[in-house]
Batch of 2 targets.
Target 1
Amino acid sequence: MSINIYDIAKKAGVSAATVSRVINNKPHVREETKRNILNIISSMNYTPNALARNLSTGNTLNIGFLIPDIENPFFSQLLRGLTNASERYGYNIFLYGTDDSIEKEHRFFRSVKAERLSGIIVIPIDANNAESCKRLLEFEKAGVPVVLIDRGLKNCRLNGVFSEDFNGSYAAVDCLLQEGHRRIATIKGPENSRPGNERWLGYLAALEKWNIKPEERYIRQGNFHEELAYELMHSLMEQSEPPTAIFSSNNMTSLGCLHYITEKGLILGGDISMIGFDDMDILKCMNIKLSVVDRDVYSMGWNAIELLTKRLAELSNKDKNEISCRQEIFVPTKLILRGSEKWRG
Amino acid sequence: MSINIYDIAKKAGVSAATVSRVINNKPHVREETKRNILNIISSMNYTPNALARNLSTGNTLNIGFLIPDIENPFFSQLLRGLTNASERYGYNIFLYGTDDSIEKEHRFFRSVKAERLSGIIVIPIDANNAESCKRLLEFEKAGVPVVLIDRGLKNCRLNGVFSEDFNGSYAAVDCLLQEGHRRIATIKGPENSRPGNERWLGYLAALEKWNIKPEERYIRQGNFHEELAYELMHSLMEQSEPPTAIFSSNNMTSLGCLHYITEKGLILGGDISMIGFDDMDILKCMNIKLSVVDRDVYSMGWNAIELLTKRLAELSNKDKNEISCRQEIFVPTKLILRGSEKWRG
DNA sequence: TTGTAGGCGTTATCAG
DNA sequence: CTGATAACGCCTACAA
């Protein structure tokens, strides 16, 4: 096959053990021996076999990432944070696209085990899926740390990086109320998603603060996708007393709303007001002054890797047998006002 | 550590070899023995260690994917095609985000070798980079097939999946000419990119067909990113005799153009005409009738995996020692007219 | 049909 | 500071 550690050893007139020490920057090697070996390594263009090393150490630097919808720009941004951070920390990323299919999600769990990944970062598809929850807890117990991002799992206490969905949503709806709106509609996220639920609770809480009863006619069950949101906008707007403002629960939903709004030629912040969750670069290009609840998505990805790194470090210091703290990180949200929240502006 | 093939063997009262045969679906195992082993495997929740297997067979089912700009929706779509196809064929994807940094690209090549990936799919950053070319050819020679996507490398004959950039661009510009435009500007892609160059040649060829001389004042050097395109639009439009139509060489560039156009309140297909390369879902939502050169990006990703699969199969049939054909697949483009090409519409 | 034994390329533990 | 040698978990001739 390809050139191995013995070839180097032979050439250098030493044993494989010494070469191994050099490769791994271990102490107790004479400076000269080291230099010589290093030279031979580079001149023979030798690259240690990671498979063999991992097998021997029982520890890969590979981490798995399960992502439900690769084309959603939110996830792309996350992915960039993740890949950058994992490069920084020396991990390889195994990418698994689950495409919103729970079967795929489960299939990938098997892969994770087979490949002996040292950690996984998961955006679970269904917060209520007991099987996923079980499998993930098994990983944790087996010493494979799990970090959730954005979405969570019900009754499944794991590490995770989330955002302040409740606060963000509350602030957005509160803002609309301050603007004078009283008929505020929302298109909810999927019921089995933590962010969807939190944002819904934020909506309710803001209404309650202002002593306003939530009304069925202004509430729609969305699925975080554009098509449905677009349809729901029709049913929201084409009723006798339509809402004066919309709170949309994610970026795709906002697109659906905007689709309807631009199609009807409505003026944002004039004919209809709106605040969406999650910013999109595209809005700027299109000169669309949509107010949004923003958060640092890139850093969510980065934080997830750091959290994982920390957990992995704790696991390798098993000698102290510390009980490590579970951590949930909540990235703050920020309300960015661009005018679409205005009433009859 | 975790449970291994010997544990299963002991429990089943057979040797590890027999268990191995069962795991790999090899013949010459009594049906009953097989059933029994399978039962034990599932009851003990055993998953074979892929690292050990790969080390032993010298063949991983892992393939690397180098992508320059994860947040570009074109690449997201590609990524979806790739992940779906690789799941279908049983590969794992190692994702490497190069972020347009040639150093990262080279660093990842090292990783590819260390991890003994069985193939790589690359979107090279710089078509003129000799080092990348050299490394990729080395991989090919070492039996690690390489498939390029979209972008290529100069003087580096490798397998690849591209699209009919020249034809697409030619058709777009020809269409603008048919509409009566004579002052057609273009914002070019990077000079070191194959698609950028092909699309530029298509532009020139179309002009030539109509006997029109390309004019410096209507040509700008872009970089496939939005910001620069936006700036270049200023310099294009704010001259004494501005162009009447724009041909934009990729999706991000189109965004930059649209940014300018919407900001100035220009009417697409009225005040200014335009055709872009690559469609974007977003356009529909924003009700923007941009005509585009479209291609099936998802299938480009899928095709890349299929090409790789074929090459891998050929390599394993080394006994025949066939010289396998290098393949370049060119996905067709399609001009989608939505009105923005019209003149004084 | 099944078992034995050696090898894949490293690392790690002891000795020296 | 360096070298044998035994793992790591699986596959695969070859033998039985």
Note: DSSP finds 13 helices and twelve strands in chain B.
Target 2
Amino acid sequence: MAIPSIKCQNCGINQLCLPVMLADAEVEHLDGIVQRTKPLDKGSILYRVGDTFNAIYAVRSGCLKSYTISENGDEQIIGFHLPGEIIGLNAIDSQQHPSTAKALETSTICTLPYEDLDSLAADMPGLRQQLMRIMSREILDDQELLFLLNKKSADERLAAFLINLSARYAKRGLANDCFKLVMKKSDIANYLGMAIETISRLFSRLVEKDYITIERKQVNIIDMNGLSQLAGVSCHL
Amino acid sequence: MAIPSIKCQNCGINQLCLPVMLADAEVEHLDGIVQRTKPLDKGSILYRVGDTFNAIYAVRSGCLKSYTISENGDEQIIGFHLPGEIIGLNAIDSQQHPSTAKALETSTICTLPYEDLDSLAADMPGLRQQLMRIMSREILDDQELLFLLNKKSADERLAAFLINLSARYAKRGLANDCFKLVMKKSDIANYLGMAIETISRLFSRLVEKDYITIERKQVNIIDMNGLSQLAGVSCHL
DNA sequence: CGATAGCTTGAGTCTTATCAACGTATGTGG
DNA sequence: CCACATACGTTGATAAGACTCAAGCTATCG
């Protein structure tokens, strides 16, 4: 079920997505290959570990998490994906999805068939370069996360996580000091490699020290400087 | 100083590198843009954090490490690079190298000027696709490392590290059970997010339990199955 | 041969995980 | 609409794994 009114040309987040470096005519071409389907309900799955790779996906609205599942059954969350972000890139090499992507809330997705995208890339230097930049960025983000997990204490990790979310919301024109955690605390714990109990205690401590307030899942950052400092200033996660 | 006798066409590791999907004539074109300079001595630096991005690099022989440096000065090793691997991909987005690459032993490097590569990619679908696969693979590798650091104990991490090295040597036609650690133990510790002392103790334990022997930097894996099991079988690091 | 960097081993400590119990949402069926 | 079931989150007590500090040992290289 296509939704004709939405096009890359008038999409609010096209400057975070693939069209960044493209001329109007080029965006038109890109738009031509995009498949838009009805929104994904909370909890439903975009692709699963082992699925054949056909396309990469752009998040248009909502939020997804992606995670792998180890042989002993426990899951490792790899990332949370906000509007404008491209997912499925880790499947290009093996042509099979190595991770599962699940909607954390109702989300709309643009499907970009990979073969079509590759053909377009041949003739559109801007698209080719933006693709490369997005992949490069993802490599860098993963490496920064690596650093976070390897070298930072539990407090610092959580602070960095919140600062990172804050920055990403800001980039999307939303408040940077006041947002809703769409993921469960247990997801945060999993992502940051900690026990749920530890996350719970750390949130309590952040509240106690007046860095943030938290009501249900609504987070307010009161002391952005303090929190950034705790996170390690230059850590963009 | 160009070394004329080495060409992509006759390079022993071209099937691990960029030429994988290319026809002979295409490899010729690729070879045309490659810059080969004299070997990098042990300890010398290929690029530094902050350097302007001009090219990506293929390791032809030797071994390099790449690492970032945090504001408080401590370094975080991101990876060790063996022949056939492409490095510098994390700089494409920002056009500045976010990490430093240093030779751990005498190493030869092929420089691939990025603009030239991009132009070639326009006309060579195979090259374009191989580039994407290599980046995709790197994303995946980083994510697997993430999992390792987040969910595995110290023993498991070290075992996984050794199994990973072993597999990579095997892929290059070298023995998978008998190799020299080119990096210092402190580098391994840094990479895996542990203290040097811990790494030292873990090596002792692996030897004691007859998984490996180690003489200077020469490692022999005696019980590959046992070590793999300890590492978590399906963990390719 | 001596200086230095790298590595090993031991003792004590700290951070974070685990276990357990309890509190708080959320949602379903009567 | 309430009561219950279930999932999610909090808090406390205890334990384990890995870090730090300290001392000594072993390569390596000029």
Note: The longest helix of chain A spans residues 125-151.
